[in-house]
Amino acid sequence: MECLGGLEALVTPVHAQFVNVLQTYIQAAVEHKDFDEATAQAHKSYNDHRERLGPDAKKVWQCLAKLGNLYQDQGVISQAFHMLRNARQGLHSVTSENPEEAYNCVRDITNGIIVIAIKQRDFDEAENESLSLIKQAEELGEAYQGAVQRHKHNLAHLYQDDLWRNDRSLALPPPNRTMIEKPLLEFMQFKGTDYTISYMQPCSWNMLRELYESTGQRSKLELLLPKLEDAISSATSENPTHGTLYNYKEKTVGSFITLGQLEKAEWWLLRLRDEVQPRVFSRLSITMQLGRVYFRMSKPNEAESCLIEAQGMAKKKRFSQKTTAFTQWWHGVDAMENSPINAVQAASSTLRDKSPRVVEMKCTSWKRQI
């Protein structure tokens, strides 16, 4: 704080150097949960800019937007929404003669407004704001086609989330399949080179997979999966993040199982098992799922090998609570060939449950069915 006071004495509070240092200070305050100090400094900066530059200066509206973002981070949604709306309107006014500058000034603010609308379950508002961003970027020509595709990708997320959560008013129809599918297919055909585009490619393939599988479009799903395989195979562990990429692969396995393409599911499960550390809980889940696949492929020896491996993992301390009940159940099975497939299927997903009691109750139920 003393550093800020000394710098302000040397330069004005609207000087770029001072503003940058102040922003770093505010960020540090937020990271240390000192929201009162962060908010006080942001308000002071806004008032200083307004006093020295006039109420309609571009930097004044940008300060208001930063203040709105700060309130949003604190969860004061209504105040944040009001500030972001006013900041955007002000920036539109001062940049109205330059559409490109206007778009670049309000893009992030509009994205913040969309986030708030989604939190408030106002999907119509979020949709309208997203469509407005797409239109603005499209009007700027070829140089902004990457931005257009990013906005369309985000809109597809909105439509898909809306459809799956089923939060829309009963008076309004959910987005139809075409509204979700069309922007994703357009995104697939776009040959962008920047990082965010390449990051979103596997995500878009995965969204299409979820759409086709959940709506029973089997033929489209069968055609899509080889392309999805290529996308997630070529993506690096950093792009997208390794955890997200692993999740896409795991869900692809589920689709292969749904389609009855068990050899493909086996291949991917073996690959996933090699990718994770032996002591990671995901390894246990993969091994159980692989055992389930082997049951369905009528390969009891391979299935038994997987379950024996899972049993060995269950003896380790970090897995014992979640797996002891299941391994006890497994010991009670006299003949591998007579094991109920449904039990193994359920175990593979239920072992993710955080409650050992739930696992124990379900395993007891399965054992009675033998």
Structure description:
- With 370 residues, the chain is mostly helical.
- The chain has a domain at 222-231 and 241-370.
- 78% of the residues lie in helices and 0% in strands.
- It contains 18 helices and no strands.
- The termini are far apart.
Shape: elongated
Mean pLDDT: 78
Helix content: over 70%
Structural class: mainly alpha
The count of β-strands is 0
| Low-pLDDT residue spans | 328-346, 348-370
Q: Which H/E pattern describes the elements?
A: HHHHHHHHHHHHHHHHHH
Distance between the termini: 70 Å
Kindly estimate the percentage of residues that lie in beta strands according to DSSP.
under 5%
- Compute the CA-based radius of gyration: 27 Å
Number of helices: 18
Main pleated sheet: none
Question: What are the key terms here?
Answer:
about 375 residues; mainly alpha
Task: Present the secondary structure layout.
Blueprint: H1 2-10, H2 16-31, H3 35-53, H4 58-73, H5 77-94, H6 99-119, H7 123-138, H8 145-165, H9 177-189, H10 195-214, H11 218-234, H12 242-259, H13 262-275, H14 281-296, H15 300-314, H16 317-331, H17 341-350, H18 356-368
Helix pairs in contact: 2-3, 3-4, 4-5, 4-6, 5-6, 6-7, 7-8, 8-9, 8-10, 9-10, 10-11, 10-12, 11-12, 12-13, 13-14, 14-15, 14-17, 15-16, 16-18, 17-18
